[in-house]
Design brief:
The protein has 309 residues and is an alpha/beta fold. It has helices at residues 3-11, 71-81, 101-104, 106-116, 134-141, 157-163, 170-182, 202-215, 232-243, 249-257, 268-282, 288-296; strands at residues 15-16, 22-24, 35-37, 40-41, 66-68, 87-90, 120-125, 146-151, 187-191, 219-222, 225-227, 262-264. The radius of gyration is 19 Å and the shape is globular.
Amino acid sequence: MDSHDTLGEALAMDYIPAKHILIRSKSTAWFGTDHTVNLYRGCCHGCLYCDSRSDCYRNPDFDRVTAKSDALRILRDELARKVRPAFIAMGAMSDPYNPFEEELLLTRHALELIDAYDCGVSVDTKSDLIVRDIDLYQSIQAHSPVICKLTVTTVDEDLAAKVEPRAPSPARRLAAVRSLAQAGVFCGVLLMPVLPFLEDRPEQVLSVVDRSADAGAKFIYSGFGVTMRQGQREYFLRELDRAFPGEHLSRRYLARYGDRYRCPSPRARELWEVFAARCRERGLLYQMPHIVSAATRGYGDRQLTFFDY
């Protein structure tokens, strides 16, 4: 998708109604956040493994991005009603830095509201467009926690082009980590999923750890496997065979995992051991409580609300 295609499609963006934008989380298990914000629905990165394709999320046209109508006004009103500042997760269901964001600026304006209402923010993305908003992350971090996470499942550019065909390259994502780190923004890498039979050799995992450390990441958080559930499973297995013809990957997945939701790598224990050792060697945080503690340290009694694990 080139920039001209993106511009044209952005101008023709479809909007869907929304009653709420700021949603209270059932737990703070995901990086200590207590609310979520999703300004967009769907994603155009085309990642074969994305759990958000699952039937339970009721979005059969997941590859088409839509925006939520009047999202910024709704978010402003919801933030204004908060008695206590929220710690907000962005990117849980759709990437907040999809290509349309470059023109629409919904994420940027939402960050301005988050800043104005003294909230914290934790962002998941595969896009280097995040560096555009470094000034806002710096401003938010002056009063509240910030955690910026770039997903990097492999540093093999050819492999990434097959499993994440329309996402920015791993090199661009790691360059974004470097820019955030140099600006003093608390940032790191999500090494997940790690696809069994494709991305789960120890040397593959260690290469992500090393490249993340070289970029200045404060942390790397991993899960050694993938999830599959109804709807997403069928898409994932079909697209695996299309991307890797002759390797019979769908047959291997079904033989090992059947209809299981959690599908850990056969090497999960070995991978954790070498991963943890290399993280310690490179000075990277890698356990959730330690990452959250480092991100929230220094923010007074607000910190106590971020540990409901």
